[in-house]
Amino acid sequence: MNCTTRDDDQRPIVIAHRGASGYRPEHTLESYRLAIRQGADFIEPDLVATRDGVLVARHENEISGTTDVARHPEFASRRTTKVIDGRTQTGWFTEDFTLAELKTLRARERIPDVRPASARFDGRYEIPTFAEILRLAKAASRDGRAVGVYPETKLPTYFASEGRRIDGAPIGVSVGHKLVETLIAEGFTDPRRVYIQSFEVANLLELKRSVMPAAGVEFPLVQLFGDLDASGPYDFRSNASYGLDLAARYGGLADIVGGIDAATRYRALATQPALQWMRANYATGIGPRKGSLLPRGSAPQSHEGKPAAREEERGPAFLAHALEAGLLVHPYTLRADEALLTRNPDGIATPSVIDEAMQLFGLGVHGCFIDQPDLGVAARDRFLAIGGR
């Protein structure tokens, strides 16, 4: 099996971010098919819920930017304004549509100004269900190759407890429960072929403590990190605002980070004690932003040589602590588009996304999320060819 980086396979993995989203409209079956053809080890669906409780792949539950819903007069009255994770948004939301209604929509490129070639495919593809994505991965797993899935539970607090449909009724859907139910229903239960990720903490703890044990399965869990200083897990803010027992919900983590409240940022979780607690209690890995790991010095200039190993280019303490704790590290998101390449404080961009990936591999990460999976595979091949692990 060649789709994982566990103890028995040290090759960095290539995770197709929303499929081959650099070439096709994101979160479509064609985007996932292309990613598989390009050699991705895992395909990543972000999961949100429909009105009838089916998980579908969209980056957010607001769909005006990634579908043609605004062109459907029959759904004009569904446009509304909601507060989601503390942010006011206006548009159309998946929880106000049945699956059958969503299937009448067609996907469109999210950033057409940056990716006009992808925008040529606007209007061709449906919104896929999580079950359809699993069936695609199963069908593509043959001749010794096993394609994995790397789903993210999107807005778990909103869907489970805070969110309401357009008619005012509570949504009341546990994305984590639905995710595990779907994996089991589709017979996709090999833990070597699944990672479950989330920016929130409570839903990962719930998966570890109750949902997966009750279902008789166990999948590796990955704690995503947003901007270390500008953001924090939304469930911290939500649970603190309702005066819930944070010690019961988060166990010893609250003590380790000096208390959890609405102002707690991801930086508090990036310490050695916090990362060690995560590893011991629920997390197999972490998913940090690439900018949290890449060196802050001058951008590398070599396209061929092994990534530099000068002291200032060995990565931050955050990465060292994660690796010391035995956590897998899968940073996001690498993108080949020139406007989206990493830039240093002087505004100099990394020469290419292949250089960016090789630099991360050289720092010791175990894989990365990338919009152009073929370039991620090329970077890994080049890294291994010059003596990388």
Automatic annotation (TrEMBL):
Residues 303-312 have a biased composition (Basic and acidic residues). This is glycerophosphodiester phosphodiesterase. InterPro entries: GP_PDE_dom, PLC-like_Pdiesterase_TIM-brl. It catalyses: a sn-glycero-3-phosphodiester + H2O = an alcohol + sn-glycerol 3-phosphate + H(+). Belongs to the glycerophosphoryl diester phosphodiesterase family. Residues 291-312 are annotated as: Disordered. It holds the Pfam family GDPD. It comes from Lysobacter yangpyeongensis.
